[in-house]
Design a protein that fits this description.
The chain has eleven helices and ten strands. By secondary structure, it is an alpha/beta fold. Helix 2 runs parallel beside helix 3. It starts with 14 loop residues before the first strand and ends with a helix. The structure holds pyridoxal-5'-phosphate.
């Protein structure tokens, strides 16, 4: 592969098969979003948002990129901001891992920590930072800007369908909902018989990239629209224990991913059994292990 610039390297991530004796009739493939330049699925949303705001004429030289995130999106903002010559300010929360904080510091983001949920940081951007210096910041607003799901509609959905024309199910987690809203819309339009499985965190569970909506994670307009349009065939709530167990099984198969991947694997197994699926099932692994290493070491089995 040959690229003229790092900004063109996101997407086209590989799919690798994992063995799962519990579901012998299904072939489970993991889409490794950790292969994106910042090691997560959020490169797609971040680039999509920056491009769309630039096209709207809102991105001016000397502006600072601003958004709230529990980690991976913040890393993408810091990285692509630096690459494109924009400083970044990210409002993170208590879910930020040590490794993600190190990444943010390495790429020179200003880090502000507010609360436990991304929506609290989003409000802080909107109600505190922006009014103070309205001309300084370009607020990406991943929780409300429809360029977020559009990025997945235009890239991730088509990539999966191109590699798996007969895919039976696609499984992914709901953070902002951009991934599953965009991918879900794409499949509903292009292959409506696919089962779309959305993964949440069970109450009391903190999993990166996987909202615990009963606990206070925010249901974004994209998630709400997907629910209203019956986009998801099955919604699974995973516990941290399930996610850890699955992540450790995947580790034995050479997959170095965050706990979100364990969560989607657990949901894929439950959904495959529930629908008696046979054939290709694709699970969307949101990130690599590197930015989760301290946590993975804590739960290592
Ligand atoms: C590891 C990981 N996987 C999946 C997601 C879900 O992405 P989305 O915000 O598009 O729902 C995220 C989002 O934070 C993430 O960090």
């Amino acid at each position: 592969m040959k690229y003229e610039a790092v900004t063109t390297m996101s997407g086209q991530t590989p799919h690798v098969r994992v063995q799962c004796p519990e579901t012998p009739a299904a072939r489970i493939y993991v889409k490794l979003e950790g292969c994106n330049p910042t090691g997560s699925i959020k490169d797609r949303a971040c680039l999509g948002l920056i491009r769309s705001l630039r096209e709207e004429g809102k991105l001016k030289q000397s502006m600072t990129l601003l958004d709230a995130s529990s980690g991976n999106f913040a890393c993408a903002v810091a990285f692509y901001g630096r690459l494109m010559g924009f400083p970044s300010t990210v409002v993170v929360n208590s879910k930020l891992t040590v490794d993600k904080r190190n990444f943010l510091e390495y790429f020179g983001a200003e880090i502000i920590q507010v609360g436990d949920f991304t929506i609290e940081g989003n409000k802080y951007c909107r109600e505190v930072l922006l009014p103070q210096q309205p001309d300084k910041y370009l607020f990406l607003d991943q929780l409300h800007n429809w360029a977020n799901p559009r990025a997945y509609y235009e890239s991730l959905g088509p990539e999966i369908l191109a590699d798996f024309p007969d895919v039976k199910a696609v499984v992914g987690s709901l953070g902002s909902g951009g991934t599953m809203a965009g991918t879900g819309k794409y499949f509903r339009e292009h292959k409506p018989d696919v089962k779309l499985i959305a993964v949440q965190a069970a109450p009391g569970t903190k999993l990166p990239g996987t909202g615990a909506f009963e606990d206070g994670d925010y249901i974004t307009p994209f998630i709400q629209q997907s629910i209203d349009n019956n986009v998801f065939d099955y919604v699974v709530k995973v516990t941290e224990r399930d996610a850890i167990q699955r992540a450790m099984q995947l580790k034995d198969q050479g997959l170095f991913c965050g706990l979100q991947t364990g969560g989607v694997m657990q949901a894929a197994v439950l959904a495959t059994k529930h629908f008696h699926l046979e054939g290709d099932v694709v699970i969307i692994s949101g990130d690599t292990g590197w930015k989760n290493l301290a946590k993975l070491l804590q739960v290592n089995q």
